């Protein structure tokens, strides 16, 4: 079962869709999420969010000032500032 991912900034949704892997930077270090990961709530640090889509395509965004959560194969990343870089 894939991850359902939502990356939003204060202004809009930056990216949403299904993925096999999400890696983000928190104030405690980088964390990666795959389907079946335990629930997590963490403070987002400034840095890259890397999303690997089901077909292997990679999405990269810069994000800062927010939080991320993982629960039931749903990853939500809420940032004050976020933008796609590739």
TrEMBL record:
Q: Which UniProt keywords apply?
A: ATP synthesis, CF(1), Ion transport, Membrane, Transport
Under CDD domains, the record lists: F1-ATPase_delta (cd12152)
Chief place of localization: membrane
| Protein location | Cell membrane
**InterPro entries named in the record:** ATP_synth_F1_dsu/esu, ATP_synth_F1_dsu/esu_N, ATPsynth_dsu/esu_N
Superkingdom is Bacteria
- ATP synthase F1 complex delta/epsilon subunit N-terminal domain mapped to chain residues: 3-82
KW Ion transport (keyword) present? yes
Q: How does it sit in the membrane?
A: Peripheral membrane protein
Pfam families of this UniProt entry? ATP-synt_DE_N
Q: Which family does it belong to?
A: Belongs to the ATPase epsilon chain family.
Report the NCBIfam families cross-referenced here.
PRK13442.1
Q: Name the chain's protein.
A: F0F1 ATP synthase subunit epsilon
């Amino acid at each position: 079962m894939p991850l359902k991912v939502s990356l939003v900034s204060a202004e809009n949704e930056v990216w949403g869709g299904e993925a096999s892997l999400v890696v983000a930077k928190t104030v405690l270090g980088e964390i990666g999420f795959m389907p079946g990961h335990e629930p997590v709530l963490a403070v987002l640090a400034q840095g890259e969010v890397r999303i690997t889509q089901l077909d292997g395509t990679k999405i990269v965004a810069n994000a800062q000032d927010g939080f991320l959560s993982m629960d039931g194969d749903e990853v939500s990343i809420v940032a004050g500032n976020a933008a796609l870089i590739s």
